[in-house]
Specification:
The protein has helices at residues 44-51, 74-84, 100-109, 115-128, 144-156, 174-189, 201-204, and strands at residues 2-13, 16-28, 33-37, 59-64, 67-68, 85-88, 162-166, 193-197, 209-214, 217-220. The protein has 221 residues and is an alpha/beta fold. It has one domain: P-loop containing nucleotide triphosphate hydrolases (Rossmann fold, 3-Layer(aba) Sandwich). Strands 6-7-8-3-9-10 form a 6-stranded mixed sheet, sandwiched between helices. The protein has a 4-stranded antiparallel sheet with strand order 2-1-4-5. The chain is globular and about 55 Å long.
């Protein structure tokens, strides 16, 4: 599903170039649940942004579902992102001016789905995440845990082939965190490929493979 060949990322600095990622070679098969770990500054979130097609400034080759990402135009990358990937951020990234219902409808609006079908999917998702009573509220009216539940619901509502999660339980109570991780495990068992960045050994145990980053290099897989 994913193949990276000598992917590198650097920033220009007074000393020349400061590398964030170095010679990243990685393959992830469809249906895997992969964890990326490493100390702060190791390049974990940068790698996830590249995988999620949110960062287009890097060197090397990236193949996603057989498509050479480095050859795609920005608009094509954005379209591939919308059609393929669900992203869960630590800081939620909900749209503040939209209700919970409207936030959940956004990913569906990018796809060729009838309005009636979208309404049914949103209703099912609200029920699945037990947030029906929150559907007309705005993000600012929710607790941090509730916002993260909505963010996860938004990521999975369109049944993406790939879910990328950056510290998905970092702001949650342990019981809420377990609920999210159990859901990821279930989705993975149903065939969704998941790549998570985490510092939590408990969360890492949900996956089937751990990739260790240090100073921008893969040091263990």
């Amino acid at each position: 599903m994913i193949r990276l060949v000598d992917v590198e990322k650097y920033y220009a600095s007074g000393a020349g170039q400061t590398y964030v990622l170095r010679r990243i070679n990685l393959e992830v098969a469809a249906g895997e649940f992969v964890t990326i770990m490493g100390p702060s500054g190791a390049g974990k979130s940068t790698l996830l942004s590249i995988l999620g097609l949110l960062d287009g400034v890097w060197e090397g080759e990236y193949f996603l579902l057989g498509q050479a990402v480095q050859q795609l135009k920005p608009k094509q990358r954005a379209e591939l992102n919308k059609q393929t990937i669900g992203f869960v951020f630590q800081q939620y990234h909900l749209l503040d001016n939209l209700t919970v219902y409207e936030n959940l409808d956004i990913p569906l609006s990018y796809r060729n789905i009838k309005r009636s079908e979208r309404a049914a999917l949103v209703a099912d998702t609200l029920d699945r995440f037990r947030i029906v009573g929150k559907k007309d509220l705005y993000p600012s009216q929710l607790s941090g845990g509730q916002q993260q539940l909505v963010a996860v619901a938004r990521a999975v509502i369109a049944s993406p082939k790939l879910i990328l999660a950056d510290e998905p339980t970092g702001n949650l109570h342990s019981s809420q965190g377990k609920e999210i991780m159990d859901l990821f495990k279930q989705l993975n068992q149903e065939g969704t490929t998941i790549i998570q960045v985490t510092h939590s050994e408990t969360n890492a145990a949900y996956g089937n493979r751990i990739i260790q980053l240090a100073d921008g290099w893969i040091v263990d897989r």
